Amino acid sequence: MVNVIMHGCNGKMGRNIAALIADDPEITLAAGVDAFDEGKNPFPVFKDIRDCDTEADVIIDFSAAPAVDNLLTYCEEKKVPCVLCTTGLSEEQLQRVEEVSKKVAILKSANMSLGINMLLKLLKEAAKTLVPAGYDIEIVEKHHNLKKDAPSGTALALGDTINEEFDNEFDYVFDRSTRREVRPKKEIGFASVRGGTIVGDHDVIFAGTDEVITFSHSAYSKAVFAKGAVQAAKYLKGKPAGLYNMSNVIDNK
Length: 253
Ligand SMILES: NC(=O)C1=CN([C@@H]2O[C@H](COP(=O)(O)OP(=O)(O)OC[C@H]3O[C@@H](n4cnc5c(N)ncnc54)[C@H](O)[C@@H]3O)[C@@H](O)[C@H]2O)C=CC1
Ligand SMILES: O=C(O)C1=N[C@H](C(=O)O)C[C@H](O)C1
Description:
single chain; alpha/beta; seven-stranded parallel β-sheet; five-stranded mixed β-sheet; 7 helices; 25% strand; binds 1,4-dihydronicotinamide adenine dinucleotide; binds ligand LZUJQKHR
């Protein structure tokens, strides 16, 4: 049995995960944490992670970037592993994740779906052929009108997986509106669309001379992320300190 604390339990993802866990005999939601609570959950809810005195094997986090600082301190002090899914973290927060992961297991992933995690691997291969052949890389992401961060964490992870193959020599461009110059070769452009209830669409475009190759992923429901997060929590229980990602879960190592 895996006992979980759901950080951000009353949010869109938190509620999806609570429903999934309720039907899974291998995992229990021992407590939730949410700054906003109406007292309707069948588990204890704390307003702040610092108030939480429930023992758990793993924390699943889908909250908001400002909430991650106290969460990391809690994980570090109580030695509770964490599946960290919140996006829009600052450079300082990302460094803190690295630091805390030396003391406790942290699995960080901007996208818990199987499809995106497979795409992260495929893109490395595609880029090895297409970048030397002169193809330009642009990433377009689309999300619902409630999303606060842009570009999405997934878009950045897709860019990073390509950039790592080329010693991080690509610059990221998020806004071309103030520039009056031809696109330099060594850059990856990002564009964000926000509207309606779009769950999450990502296109990675390799644009060459007279041909374009587009890798597309569309999430049709938040269940794909919830399923991955529950799998990750089961995987992370009892793991030694370290920084993990979804490929560890998928490859089970
Ligand atoms: N890694 C992945 O696969 C995915 C990541 N996300 C990310 O997860 C995060 C949450 O997404 P949603 O559930 O859609 O957002 P949401 O806004 O619906 O839910 C966030 C919840 O966190 C709570 N919260 C805010 N500050 C808090 C604090 N200090 N302590 C405790 N709870 C706090 C809010 O009250 C809210 O209930 C976002 O950063 C989003 O980008 C979302 C979907 C998939
Ligand atoms: O906020 C969301 O909804 C999502 N956020 C993640 C991101 O920023 O990449 C993952 C997914 O696309 C949904």
